[in-house]
């Protein structure tokens, strides 16, 4: 029979004895009547099994074998002394080496008897092999001793070592008996190694020994463990024909296998067969059947079987009751589960820890208060809750969004000296993040460190994701850096959350750079990551890069999902490129969904092609894709924009016929158009219809009416409506405030306009660029004495700085201190008008006030410098920006490098390009934006080629698709130049 591969032997355990004691003990035992002398009596209390082992191994002249054996037996009788496997092994090696006569069987059995661990049993196997190796055949052990060793090894599932002992038995010329084979077969069957078990079974048959029930039961178990229930049932049925009587264990093994495979009906058939076979099902049999019925959802059948047990003469155990409780809890019937607890207590069976934990876990799914009450009563009865118990209650309160109760239980848990584990902390942090309580989530993270635990990637990413969704990307990046410092590797979810946050924070270049970081970390970006980046490119209307990312995703073996197509389609449609979007979808063979159709309908409607939009709705319905209220709202919006209210109103009837309820967006669109057409009574009636249908007006709905009041100068009514909004729990948005400020300005109510600005900021509504434009427009108009009409879009061409200073002073007078957003909005206006000097004066003013410019201000100034060809100034802004910890956008480098090349300063352009390569940018995006979309489109072919070579020399990571794109563009540009030169020569 082939021997199994050996397992490497563990290193010998270090001695724990004292050399002086061992040396003295050796000298004493070498004397006559050593056990009677005062020297040994003084030393005896200090002697341990480790000393004895070292004594037997002590070089260079070990004890005489007879002396060693006598001392081993004598010291073993001392009260409180217990030999170890090490002391046994040392003696056996000493005896075998000298081939001394001894009862080796007795010593090996004794050694096995004091083996408490798998490590001890490995030492036993080593000792058996040492006896054979040094003592030869004359010291061979008996089959009984070998069988005892095999059974003991089986206890620890050490099948590989069992194979070694079996081989030793055969090499000693001994014949395995039925016990030997049965032990081997059972061990390998338990392990699921049925092929090995069957080899031993074959050896048993070939030896002429008769099979017994134990052998067949072992093979039945093996078949069940490997999932071959057909063979298990076949062998069970064949057992009588093989001369083996079936017993309760035979049936129970198969019933367990069938129940685990959810074949409860078959297991119930076996139960009937078992009773006909004069085998009485035991408690374990019934418990397995109850568990199987519960797993299949047959809870009531399981309960009937439980109630029938006393009639069958079987007393349910705590495990049986627990099985029923678990079934009820998993099916959500916690009331019945509590009934089982009462039943078991009434029958004198006390609930154990498992009972309480199971009930508490079940109650925490919607009845956490009851779970906590049960916990308190269980503690009063001696139950000791574990971390799992408390975590279940914390999780229950978290699911119910009762965070304060969850934190209270956490404090109780800590006061009971039960430390939270990572799962408990993870549950808490997850719900704190979801409820925007990020500060507490971060404090909980610090608590994890304080308790000596290492947060895992899920915990870190939960906090990062929470910060990103709140727009606190800087804080998210700090947690990301902490995560890396602590040696916790981020995963795809971590990077995707950061990329989402950076894009929301308008830092697309940093989001793109994370793709490179992901790949360097061995993490492959997924569809969600690419889709998020595509969304970022679309937000900046950079559709060329969006399509490049889409192709890159496909080249990397990823299949774009519905969301990826919807993101690109929606962005194209909103940019009046609906036909391009539709062609793209048709070319890709995409099955259009409700969301895709809605985007296309919106796109074609806004492009003025409402007929095709209506056709798309009909096509959508014919293809079984039901339009919703939002789908119709985009069509209504388009018709109203084209002053086709008479065509829009019948659509409401279509929606009603198709069972689609008109939403707040549709109502607001129609109300807005009615007001525009002067049909105020119709608008009010539709507003009443909307509110009576249960639709709550939105800020946009109110703003429509406020706008109409402001246009006709009814400022009091408009302001009253703002108050009504606030009382109704609807917060005015920045558009609402801007419209009201504009209305106040038109009426010359500048005090009210500035008071509204203060009210806006107090309501945590951040003023935007248009807020300051409107204020400045009306402030300027007032200062000119209504002599000129002032257009908000053109005022930046001729407004003076003195007027700006007056505006800022007026803001301060009304308790509104100018912020970085205030200065940023005014600088943006001057930059749009390419008035760089005024923009720089404003920058100096804000810095003088102790307000640091943000990333957006620097970006606008760099663009303005490039537009006005002040490249030296632009370079200084880039340098200042980096010094402040900001990373310039790639567009800024594109403007600068292309502008420098336009001016002929190629060396500076090349130097600047090499600097940016050392920064954290995605090199594919560098090629897209600077080389392809910048230099090549501007006609700078030679410098583009040089910069591409510089990237190659620096081994920048650029994928094959990007490289092919730029080289093809360079070849096309080169061919175009040659053609032009030939044309000129001709």
From TrEMBL:
PPR repeat start and end residues: 177-211, 212-246, 247-281, 282-316, 317-351, 352-385, 386-420, 421-455, 456-490, 491-525, 526-560, 593-627, 628-662, 663-697, 698-732, 733-767, 819-853, 854-888
Keyword Transit peptide (UniProt): yes
Presence of the UniProt keyword Repeat in the record: yes
Alphabetically ordered keywords of this record: Repeat, Transit peptide
Listed Pfam families: PPR, PPR_1, PPR_2
Organism domain of life: Eukaryota
UniProt xrefs under PANTHER family: MEMBRANE-ASSOCIATED SALT-INDUCIBLE PROTEIN-LIKE (PTHR47939), OS03G0201400 PROTEIN (PTHR47939:SF13)
Family membership noted in the UniProt record: Belongs to the PPR family. P subfamily.
NCBIfam families: PPR (TIGR00756)
Protein name, entry field: Pentatricopeptide repeat-containing protein
């Amino acid at each position: 029979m082939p021997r199994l591969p050996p397992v490497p032997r563990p290193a010998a355990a270090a001695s724990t004895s004292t050399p002086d004691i061992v040396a003295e003990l050796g000298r004493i035992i070498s004397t006559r009547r050593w056990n009677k002398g005062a020297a040994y009596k003084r030393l005896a209390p200090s002697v341990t099994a480790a000393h004895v082992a070292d004594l037997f191994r002590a070089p260079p002249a070990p004890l005489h074998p007879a002396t060693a054996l006598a001392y081993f037996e004598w010291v073993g009788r001392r009260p409180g002394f217990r030999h170890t496997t090490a002391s046994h092994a040392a003696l056996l090696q000493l005896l075998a080496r000298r081939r001394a006569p001894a009862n080796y069987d007795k010593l090996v059995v004794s050694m096995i008897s004091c083996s408490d661990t798998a490590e001890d049993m490995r030492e036993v196997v080593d000792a058996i092999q040492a006896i054979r190796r040094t003592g030869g055949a004359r010291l061979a052990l008996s089959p009984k001793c070998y069988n005892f060793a095999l059974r003991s090894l089986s206890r620890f599932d050490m099948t590989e070592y069992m194979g070694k002992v079996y081989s030793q038995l055969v090499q000693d010329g001994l014949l395995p008996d039925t016990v030997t084979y049965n032990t081997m077969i059972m061990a390998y069957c338990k392990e699921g190694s049925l092929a090995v078990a069957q080899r031993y079974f074959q050896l048993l048959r070939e030896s002429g020994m008769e099979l017994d029930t134990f052998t067949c039961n072992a093979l039945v178990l093996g078949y069940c463990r490997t999932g071959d229930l057909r063979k298990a049932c076949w062998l069970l049925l064949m057992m009588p024909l093989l001369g083996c009587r079936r017993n309760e264990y035979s049936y129970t093994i198969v019933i367990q296998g069938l129940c685990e495979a959810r074949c409860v009906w078959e297991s119930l058939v076996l139960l009937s067969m078992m009773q006909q076979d004069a085998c009485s099902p035991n408690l374990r049999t019934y418990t397995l059947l109850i568990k199987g019925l519960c797993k299949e959802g047959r809870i009531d059948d399981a309960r009937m079987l439980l109630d029938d047990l006393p009639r069958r003469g079987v007393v349910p155990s705590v495990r049986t009751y627990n099985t029923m409780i678990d079934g009820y809890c998993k099916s959500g019937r916690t009331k019945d589960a509590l009934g089982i607890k009462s039943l078991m207590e009434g029958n004198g069976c006390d609930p154990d820890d498992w009972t309480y934990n199971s009930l508490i876990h079940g109650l925490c799914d919607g009845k956490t208060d009851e779970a906590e009450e049960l916990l308190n009563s269980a503690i009063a009865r001696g139950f000791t809750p574990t971390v799992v118990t408390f975590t279940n209650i914390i999780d229950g309160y978290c699911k119910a969004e009762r965070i304060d109760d969850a934190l209270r239980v956490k404090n109780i848990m800590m006061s009971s000296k039960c430390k939270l584990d990572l799962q408990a902390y993870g549950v808490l942090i997850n719900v704190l993040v979801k409820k925007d309580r990020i500060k507490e989530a971060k404090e909980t993270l610090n608590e994890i460190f304080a308790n000596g635990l290492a947060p895992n990637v899920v915990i870190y990413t939960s906090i990062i994701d929470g910060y990103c969704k709140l727009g606190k990307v800087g804080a998210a990046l700090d947690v990301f850096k902490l995560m890396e410092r602590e040696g916790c590797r981020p995963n795809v979810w971590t990077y995707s959350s950061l990329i989402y946050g950076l894009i929301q924070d308008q830092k697309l270049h940093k989001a793109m750079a994370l793709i490179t970081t992901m790949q360097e970390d061995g993490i492959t970006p997924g569809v969600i990551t690419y889709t998020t980046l595509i969304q970022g490119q679309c937000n900046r209307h950079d559709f060329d890069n969006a399509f490049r990312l889409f192709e890159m995703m496909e080249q990397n073996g990823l299949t774009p999902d519905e969301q990826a197509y919807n993101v690109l389609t929606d962005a194209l449609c909103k940019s009046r490129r609906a036909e391009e979007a539709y062609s793209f979808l048709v070319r890709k063979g995409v099955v259009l969904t409700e969301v895709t159709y809605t985007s296309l309908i919106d796109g074609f409607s806004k492009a003025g092609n409402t007929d095709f939009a209506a056709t798309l709705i009909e096509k959508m319905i014919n293809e079984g894709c039901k339009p919703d209220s939002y789908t119709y709202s985009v069509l209504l919006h388009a018709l109203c924009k084209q002053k086709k209210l008479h065509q829009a109103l019948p659509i409401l009837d279509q929606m009603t016929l198709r069972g689609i309820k008109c939403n707040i967006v549709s109502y607001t669109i129609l109300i807005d158009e009615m007001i525009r057409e002067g049909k105020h009574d119709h608008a009010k009636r539709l507003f009443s219809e909307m509110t009576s249908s249960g639709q709550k007006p939105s800020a946009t709905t109110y703003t429509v009416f406020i706008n109409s009041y402001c246009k006709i100068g009814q400022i009091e009514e408009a302001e009253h409506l703002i108050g009504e909004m606030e009382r109704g729990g609807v917060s005015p948005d920045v558009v609402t405030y801007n419209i009201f400020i504009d209305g106040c300005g038109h009426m010359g109510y500048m005090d009210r306009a500035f008071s509204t600005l203060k009210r806006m900021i107090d309501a945590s509504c951040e003023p935007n660029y248009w807020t300051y434009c409107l204020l400045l427009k009306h402030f300027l108009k007032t200062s000119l004495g209504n002599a000129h009409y002032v257009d908000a879009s053109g005022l930046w061409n001729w407004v003076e700085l003195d007027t700006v200073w007056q505006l800022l002073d007026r803001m301060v007078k009304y308790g509104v201190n100018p912020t970085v957003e205030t200065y940023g909005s005014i600088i943006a206006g001057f930059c749009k008008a390419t008035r760089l000097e005024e923009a720089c004066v404003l920058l100096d003013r804000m810095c003088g006030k102790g307000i640091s410019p943000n990333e957006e201000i620097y970006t606008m100034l760099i663009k303005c410098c490039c537009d006005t060809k002040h490249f030296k100034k632009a370079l200084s802004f880039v340098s200042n920006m980096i010094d402040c910890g900001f990373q310039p956008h790639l567009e800024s480098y594109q403007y600068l490098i292309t502008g420098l090349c336009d001016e002929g300063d190629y060396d500076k352009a090349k130097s600047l390009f090499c600097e940016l390569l050392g920064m954290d940018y995605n090199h594919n995006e560098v090629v897209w934006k600077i080389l392809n979309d910048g230099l090549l489109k501007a006609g700078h072919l030679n410098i583009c080629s040089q910069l591409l070579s510089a990237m190659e020399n620096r081994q920048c990571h650029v994928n094959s698709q990007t490289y092919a794109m730029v080289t093809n563009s360079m070849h096309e540009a080169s061919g175009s130049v040659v053609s032009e030169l030939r044309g000129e020569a001709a």
